[in-house]
Amino acid sequence: MNKQLLEKITEKFKELYGVEPLLIRAPGRINLIGEHTDYNEGYVLPCAVSPAIYFAMSNREDGKVCLNSYDYGSYCEFKIDQKDRPKEQWASYLYGITQIIQEKGYKISGFNCVFGGDVPVGAGMSSSAALESGLCLGISQLNNLNLDKMEMAKIGQRSEHEYVGVKCGIMDQFASIFGKQNHCVRLDCRSLKYEYSKLEMKDYIFVLTDSKVKHSLASSEYNTRREECAAGVKAIQTKFPNINSLRDATIEQLNAVVGEITDTVYNRCKYVIEEDSRVIEACNALNNNDLVKFGNLLYLSHNGLSKMYEVSCKELDFLVDQTKKMDYILGSRMMGGGFGGCTLSLIKADKLQEYKSVIAPLYKEKFGIECKFYAATAEDGTALV
Fold it and tell me: What positions carry a catalytic annotation?
């Protein structure tokens, strides 16, 4: 926990509103393995991480919502029953939460809120999900709503869909809310059933290496991948009508329709089917304390994402390839939607500085970009402080 940042946010709140606030921590998240499986009704394996957004909140009697972004020095105000969206883009995430909770039939009061955090924006740790999860818990606590965890995750997802325009899966909000210290959690994206696996990290840590690039292909190619997967499912259903998504399909069933789909669609589907299996294998490896096997699965995941799903880029491939030369790294892969963002690597903790000192100049020389590094440990999910 970033106690210094929490104290600053608390002080700012007291300076503005003169009362003791309700305090909440909402973490970011990483996904260990299981990429592009969510919209194919498959499995993902996220965990909540140490970087988080902190909230200081209190009720108001006048129906106003007063939002203060500590990090950006920005302010937004609206009435709790206001139907016009605030003009501040950053407030859309939070406004959406207030509207959806009311649409679900809950009566809530206005409130004061100061929030700020250390979740890096654009690095794939889902600062937006932390923002939604923290505010949702705060409103629930201030109004005694007793919203359960899954309902809060769904409210956060709806806010992204309807008020921000991002058609995200539920993994980000789920991970931020359901996180558990020293554990990752396997989520079944179809049934929303979940199961924890203990992270016995021994002397290893996860490190994110931020490529600091985001190629413009990301959004259009994401939609294309969804269409290609759907085309594969449609072809498989002609011979196996009980198949509802790639989650249900086997490689043998995919091979049975190889002549009826393009090579591209075949590769997309093969990757997803294999990645789902890798998530299961990864959980087994973690439960058996086999970090070597887990690391190898990370490399296999990246190879599939790069060569078969084609959502990597030269910068991410370079970062992953460099780790194969380092015997203190067990595995690495691109994390997130692709075409930029971070790699996730499993590194011996006492070699972190050596890794940074090797990678940073190599990457700068190759691409003219200063990459950034974030160590990540598995932490508890959104909760009162």
Answer: 172
